[in-house]
Amino acid sequence: QGVVLMDPSEDPDDVLRANRSREKTFVFDMVFDHTATQEEVYLSTTQSLIEGVISGYNATIFAYGPTGTGKTYTMLGTDSEPGIYIRALDDLFKGLGATAEDVDYTVSMSYLEIYNEVIRDLLNPSSGFLDLREDSRGSIQIAGITEVSTTNAQEVMQLLTKGNKQRTQEPTAANGASSRSHAVLQVTATQRSPGKGAGEEVRIGKLFMVDLAGSERAAQQTQNRGKRMKEGAHINRSLLALGNCINALSEKGGSRAQFVNFRDSKLTRLLKDSLGGNSRTVMIAHISPASSSFEESRMTLIYAHRAKNIKTQV
Protein backbone atom coordinates (compact mmCIF):
# COMPACT_ATOMS: atom_id res chain seq x y z
CA GLN A 1 0.00 0.00 0.00
CA GLY A 2 3.03 2.27 0.03
CA VAL A 3 4.84 4.23 -2.68
CA VAL A 4 8.49 5.06 -2.18
CA LEU A 5 9.76 7.91 -4.34
CA MET A 6 13.54 8.10 -4.78
CA ASP A 7 15.23 11.18 -6.16
CA PRO A 8 17.27 10.19 -9.26
CA SER A 9 19.58 13.22 -8.96
CA GLU A 10 20.77 12.31 -5.47
CA ASP A 11 24.50 11.88 -5.11
CA PRO A 12 25.52 9.19 -2.60
CA ASP A 13 28.91 10.86 -1.99
CA ASP A 14 27.48 14.28 -1.13
CA VAL A 15 28.64 14.78 2.46
CA LEU A 16 26.48 17.83 3.18
CA ARG A 17 23.26 16.04 2.34
CA ALA A 18 24.19 12.71 3.90
CA ASN A 19 21.34 12.76 6.43
CA ARG A 20 18.85 14.63 4.28
CA SER A 21 17.48 12.17 1.82
CA ARG A 22 14.74 13.34 -0.54
CA GLU A 23 13.24 9.90 -0.41
CA LYS A 24 9.50 10.13 0.30
CA THR A 25 7.04 7.47 1.34
CA PHE A 26 3.32 7.79 0.72
CA VAL A 27 0.64 5.44 1.97
CA PHE A 28 -2.58 4.92 0.01
CA ASP A 29 -5.54 2.59 0.16
CA MET A 30 -4.25 0.65 -2.82
CA VAL A 31 -1.10 0.82 -4.95
CA PHE A 32 -0.56 -0.91 -8.30
CA ASP A 33 2.74 -1.53 -10.04
CA HIS A 34 3.36 -1.91 -13.77
CA THR A 35 2.13 -5.52 -13.80
CA ALA A 36 -1.45 -4.71 -12.71
CA THR A 37 -4.20 -5.53 -15.19
CA GLN A 38 -7.22 -3.38 -16.02
CA GLU A 39 -9.42 -5.86 -14.17
CA GLU A 40 -7.39 -5.68 -10.94
CA VAL A 41 -7.54 -1.88 -10.97
CA TYR A 42 -11.28 -1.96 -11.57
CA LEU A 43 -12.06 -4.58 -8.91
CA SER A 44 -10.18 -2.84 -6.14
CA THR A 45 -11.16 0.77 -6.94
CA THR A 46 -14.56 0.96 -8.53
CA GLN A 47 -16.53 -2.26 -8.19
CA SER A 48 -17.70 -1.57 -4.63
CA LEU A 49 -19.16 1.80 -5.69
CA ILE A 50 -21.60 0.31 -8.20
CA GLU A 51 -23.89 -1.24 -5.56
CA GLY A 52 -24.08 2.20 -3.99
CA VAL A 53 -25.23 3.77 -7.26
CA ILE A 54 -27.95 1.12 -7.52
CA SER A 55 -29.13 1.91 -3.98
CA GLY A 56 -29.31 5.61 -4.84
CA TYR A 57 -25.99 7.12 -3.77
CA ASN A 58 -23.70 9.09 -6.04
CA ALA A 59 -20.23 7.92 -6.97
CA THR A 60 -17.31 9.62 -8.69
CA ILE A 61 -14.09 8.24 -10.15
CA PHE A 62 -11.22 10.55 -11.09
CA ALA A 63 -8.18 9.70 -13.18
CA TYR A 64 -5.47 12.20 -12.28
CA GLY A 65 -1.81 12.57 -13.12
CA PRO A 66 0.83 14.16 -15.36
CA THR A 67 0.53 14.03 -19.13
CA GLY A 68 1.35 10.67 -20.72
CA THR A 69 0.91 8.44 -17.66
CA GLY A 70 -2.11 6.48 -18.91
CA LYS A 71 -5.26 8.15 -17.58
CA THR A 72 -7.26 7.68 -20.76
CA TYR A 73 -6.09 4.06 -20.92
CA THR A 74 -7.33 3.41 -17.38
CA MET A 75 -10.72 4.98 -18.04
CA LEU A 76 -11.46 3.99 -21.65
CA GLY A 77 -9.00 1.20 -22.30
CA THR A 78 -8.71 -0.65 -25.60
CA ASP A 79 -11.07 -3.13 -27.27
CA SER A 80 -9.19 -6.12 -25.85
CA GLU A 81 -8.55 -4.52 -22.44
CA PRO A 82 -11.61 -2.38 -21.64
CA GLY A 83 -11.21 0.27 -18.97
CA ILE A 84 -13.27 1.43 -16.02
CA TYR A 85 -16.06 3.07 -18.09
CA ILE A 86 -17.17 -0.20 -19.66
CA ARG A 87 -16.59 -2.51 -16.70
CA ALA A 88 -18.53 -0.20 -14.38
CA LEU A 89 -21.46 0.10 -16.78
CA ASP A 90 -21.47 -3.66 -17.34
CA ASP A 91 -21.81 -4.24 -13.61
CA LEU A 92 -24.41 -1.48 -13.34
CA PHE A 93 -26.65 -3.11 -15.97
CA LYS A 94 -26.16 -6.54 -14.38
CA GLY A 95 -26.99 -5.17 -10.93
CA LEU A 96 -30.08 -3.33 -12.16
CA GLY A 97 -31.23 -6.39 -14.08
CA ALA A 98 -31.05 -8.44 -10.88
CA THR A 99 -33.34 -6.09 -8.90
CA ALA A 100 -36.96 -7.01 -8.09
CA GLU A 101 -39.32 -7.63 -11.00
CA ASP A 102 -41.73 -4.77 -10.35
CA VAL A 103 -38.94 -2.19 -10.60
CA ASP A 104 -38.63 -0.20 -13.81
CA TYR A 105 -35.16 1.16 -14.41
CA THR A 106 -33.71 3.56 -16.95
CA VAL A 107 -30.06 4.41 -17.47
CA SER A 108 -29.18 7.63 -19.26
CA MET A 109 -25.72 8.96 -19.93
CA SER A 110 -24.07 12.07 -21.27
CA TYR A 111 -20.43 12.53 -22.27
CA LEU A 112 -18.86 15.97 -22.36
CA GLU A 113 -15.48 17.65 -22.37
CA ILE A 114 -14.28 20.82 -20.71
CA TYR A 115 -11.72 22.45 -22.98
CA ASN A 116 -10.30 25.92 -22.26
CA GLU A 117 -13.11 26.44 -19.73
CA VAL A 118 -15.91 25.82 -22.23
CA ILE A 119 -18.17 22.77 -22.26
CA ARG A 120 -18.60 20.70 -25.42
CA ASP A 121 -20.97 17.79 -25.89
CA LEU A 122 -18.96 14.87 -27.26
CA LEU A 123 -22.02 12.89 -28.40
CA ASN A 124 -23.29 15.83 -30.44
CA PRO A 125 -20.29 18.08 -31.14
CA SER A 126 -22.21 20.34 -33.53
CA SER A 127 -24.22 21.83 -30.65
CA GLY A 128 -21.44 24.31 -29.85
CA PHE A 129 -20.55 25.54 -26.38
CA LEU A 130 -23.00 24.76 -23.58
CA ASP A 131 -23.85 26.60 -20.35
CA LEU A 132 -23.99 25.43 -16.76
CA ARG A 133 -27.24 26.31 -15.00
CA GLU A 134 -28.50 25.65 -11.53
CA ASP A 135 -32.06 24.30 -11.21
CA SER A 136 -34.54 25.05 -8.41
CA ARG A 137 -33.29 22.21 -6.22
CA GLY A 138 -29.76 23.54 -6.42
CA SER A 139 -28.32 20.79 -8.56
CA ILE A 140 -26.15 21.80 -11.49
CA GLN A 141 -27.52 21.08 -14.98
CA ILE A 142 -25.97 21.54 -18.38
CA ALA A 143 -28.41 23.26 -20.72
CA GLY A 144 -28.89 21.41 -23.98
CA ILE A 145 -26.69 18.37 -23.35
CA THR A 146 -27.56 15.17 -25.22
CA GLU A 147 -28.72 12.41 -22.89
CA VAL A 148 -28.78 8.91 -24.34
CA SER A 149 -30.75 6.08 -22.75
CA THR A 150 -29.13 2.69 -23.19
CA THR A 151 -29.74 -0.84 -22.00
CA ASN A 152 -26.46 -2.61 -22.63
CA ALA A 153 -22.77 -1.92 -22.29
CA GLN A 154 -22.00 -2.64 -25.95
CA GLU A 155 -23.99 0.39 -27.14
CA VAL A 156 -22.21 2.48 -24.56
CA MET A 157 -18.79 1.33 -25.78
CA GLN A 158 -19.65 2.41 -29.32
CA LEU A 159 -20.93 5.78 -28.11
CA LEU A 160 -17.82 6.35 -25.99
CA THR A 161 -15.43 5.40 -28.76
CA LYS A 162 -17.28 7.75 -31.09
CA GLY A 163 -17.24 10.50 -28.45
CA ASN A 164 -13.57 10.01 -27.72
CA LYS A 165 -12.69 10.62 -31.37
CA GLN A 166 -14.31 14.05 -30.99
CA ARG A 167 -12.09 14.85 -28.03
CA THR A 168 -9.52 17.58 -28.35
CA GLN A 169 -6.16 15.84 -28.66
CA GLU A 170 -2.94 17.49 -29.69
CA PRO A 171 0.60 16.18 -29.86
CA THR A 172 3.04 17.64 -27.34
CA ALA A 173 6.68 16.69 -26.91
CA ALA A 174 5.75 14.62 -23.84
CA ASN A 175 2.86 12.68 -25.35
CA GLY A 176 1.87 12.15 -28.98
CA ALA A 177 -1.87 11.98 -28.31
CA SER A 178 -2.19 14.21 -25.29
CA SER A 179 -5.80 14.85 -24.22
CA ARG A 180 -6.14 18.61 -23.89
CA SER A 181 -9.48 18.53 -22.11
CA HIS A 182 -11.26 16.96 -19.14
CA ALA A 183 -13.78 14.33 -20.23
CA VAL A 184 -16.75 13.70 -17.95
CA LEU A 185 -19.03 10.69 -18.40
CA GLN A 186 -22.20 11.13 -16.38
CA VAL A 187 -24.45 8.09 -15.91
CA THR A 188 -27.81 8.42 -14.14
CA ALA A 189 -29.62 5.27 -12.99
CA THR A 190 -33.29 5.85 -12.12
CA GLN A 191 -35.42 3.11 -10.56
CA ARG A 192 -39.16 3.37 -10.08
CA SER A 193 -40.98 0.89 -7.88
CA PRO A 194 -44.62 1.00 -6.82
CA GLY A 195 -44.55 2.19 -3.20
CA LYS A 196 -47.13 1.68 -0.45
CA GLY A 197 -50.38 3.46 -1.28
CA ALA A 198 -50.77 5.42 -4.48
CA GLY A 199 -47.29 6.86 -4.85
CA GLU A 200 -44.18 5.32 -6.31
CA GLU A 201 -40.66 5.20 -4.98
CA VAL A 202 -37.98 6.73 -7.14
CA ARG A 203 -34.28 6.13 -6.56
CA ILE A 204 -31.74 8.11 -8.48
CA GLY A 205 -28.03 7.30 -8.40
CA LYS A 206 -25.46 9.25 -10.37
CA LEU A 207 -22.11 7.93 -11.45
CA PHE A 208 -19.49 10.43 -12.65
CA MET A 209 -16.36 9.16 -14.35
CA VAL A 210 -13.82 11.86 -15.03
CA ASP A 211 -10.74 11.54 -17.20
CA LEU A 212 -8.82 14.71 -16.33
CA ALA A 213 -6.39 16.36 -18.71
CA GLY A 214 -2.74 15.83 -17.88
CA SER A 215 -1.26 18.26 -15.43
CA GLU A 216 1.91 19.64 -16.95
CA ARG A 217 4.65 22.10 -16.25
CA ALA A 218 5.39 24.57 -19.01
CA ALA A 219 8.92 23.24 -18.90
CA GLN A 220 11.36 21.51 -21.22
CA GLN A 221 9.42 18.26 -21.29
CA THR A 222 6.34 19.36 -23.22
CA GLN A 223 8.08 22.18 -25.13
CA ASN A 224 4.75 23.96 -25.42
CA ARG A 225 4.54 27.31 -27.16
CA GLY A 226 1.70 29.51 -28.33
CA LYS A 227 -1.63 27.74 -28.42
CA ARG A 228 -0.43 24.62 -26.55
CA MET A 229 0.93 26.85 -23.81
CA LYS A 230 -2.42 28.62 -23.46
CA GLU A 231 -4.25 25.27 -23.30
CA GLY A 232 -1.81 24.12 -20.65
CA ALA A 233 -2.55 27.24 -18.63
CA HIS A 234 -6.30 26.54 -18.78
CA ILE A 235 -5.78 22.88 -17.85
CA ASN A 236 -3.59 23.81 -14.92
CA ARG A 237 -6.03 26.48 -13.84
CA SER A 238 -8.93 24.06 -13.56
CA LEU A 239 -6.74 21.45 -11.87
CA LEU A 240 -5.62 24.13 -9.43
CA ALA A 241 -9.24 25.00 -8.70
CA LEU A 242 -9.89 21.30 -8.10
CA GLY A 243 -6.83 21.19 -5.84
CA ASN A 244 -8.04 24.21 -3.88
CA CYS A 245 -11.42 22.57 -3.35
CA ILE A 246 -9.73 19.36 -2.23
CA ASN A 247 -7.49 21.29 0.18
CA ALA A 248 -10.41 23.17 1.66
CA LEU A 249 -12.48 20.01 1.98
CA SER A 250 -9.66 18.02 3.56
CA GLU A 251 -9.13 20.74 6.19
CA LYS A 252 -12.83 20.91 7.03
CA GLY A 253 -13.53 20.23 10.65
CA GLY A 254 -10.07 21.53 11.46
CA SER A 255 -9.27 24.62 13.49
CA ARG A 256 -10.52 27.16 10.96
CA ALA A 257 -13.72 27.01 8.97
CA GLN A 258 -12.80 26.72 5.32
CA PHE A 259 -14.73 28.26 2.46
CA VAL A 260 -14.83 25.85 -0.48
CA ASN A 261 -14.77 27.75 -3.74
CA PHE A 262 -16.52 25.52 -6.23
CA ARG A 263 -17.15 28.39 -8.63
CA ASP A 264 -13.53 28.86 -9.64
CA SER A 265 -13.82 26.56 -12.59
CA LYS A 266 -16.49 24.80 -14.65
CA LEU A 267 -15.00 21.47 -13.64
CA THR A 268 -15.40 21.98 -9.90
CA ARG A 269 -18.85 23.48 -10.33
CA LEU A 270 -20.01 20.46 -12.26
CA LEU A 271 -18.54 18.09 -9.68
CA LYS A 272 -19.72 20.05 -6.64
CA ASP A 273 -21.99 17.29 -5.35
CA SER A 274 -19.49 14.57 -6.01
CA LEU A 275 -16.63 16.26 -4.17
CA GLY A 276 -18.22 17.49 -0.99
CA GLY A 277 -21.73 16.15 -1.01
CA ASN A 278 -23.61 12.91 -0.96
CA SER A 279 -21.06 10.90 -2.87
CA ARG A 280 -18.41 8.22 -2.62
CA THR A 281 -15.32 9.30 -4.46
CA VAL A 282 -12.26 7.46 -5.75
CA MET A 283 -9.19 9.19 -7.16
CA ILE A 284 -6.82 7.10 -9.24
CA ALA A 285 -3.50 8.93 -9.42
CA HIS A 286 -1.14 7.98 -12.24
CA ILE A 287 2.61 8.50 -12.14
CA SER A 288 5.37 7.67 -14.55
CA PRO A 289 8.31 5.54 -13.37
CA ALA A 290 10.76 7.57 -15.49
CA SER A 291 13.39 9.45 -13.52
CA SER A 292 12.98 12.50 -15.77
CA SER A 293 9.47 13.05 -14.36
CA PHE A 294 10.44 12.93 -10.69
CA GLU A 295 9.01 16.37 -9.91
CA GLU A 296 5.68 15.62 -11.61
CA SER A 297 5.38 12.33 -9.76
CA ARG A 298 6.11 14.01 -6.45
CA MET A 299 3.48 16.71 -6.97
CA THR A 300 0.91 14.12 -8.08
CA LEU A 301 1.47 11.99 -5.00
CA ILE A 302 1.19 15.00 -2.68
CA TYR A 303 -2.07 16.00 -4.42
CA ALA A 304 -3.49 12.50 -4.14
CA HIS A 305 -2.43 12.29 -0.52
CA ARG A 306 -4.43 15.42 0.24
CA ALA A 307 -7.46 14.03 -1.55
CA LYS A 308 -7.24 11.04 0.77
CA ASN A 309 -7.95 13.26 3.80
CA ILE A 310 -11.38 14.40 2.63
CA LYS A 311 -14.14 13.03 4.82
CA THR A 312 -17.61 13.12 3.31
CA GLN A 313 -20.80 12.16 5.08
CA VAL A 314 -22.79 10.00 2.69
UniProtKB/TrEMBL annotation:
Gene Ontology terms: biological process: microtubule-based movement
Keywords annotated in UniProt: ATP-binding, Coiled coil, Cytoplasm, Cytoskeleton, Microtubule, Motor protein, Nucleotide-binding
GO molecular function: ATP binding; microtubule binding; microtubule motor activity
Stored InterPro entries: Kinesin-like_fam, Kinesin_motor_CS, Kinesin_motor_dom, Kinesin_motor_dom_sf, P-loop_NTPase
Subcellular location: Cytoplasm, Cytoskeleton
Chief place of localization: cytoplasm
Domain Kinesin motor, chain residue ranges per copy: 1-310
Residues noted as binding ATP in the record, renumbered to the chain: 65-72
Protein name per Swiss-Prot or TrEMBL: Kinesin-like protein
Species for this entry: Tyrannus savana (Fork-tailed flycatcher)
Gene name as annotated: Kif19
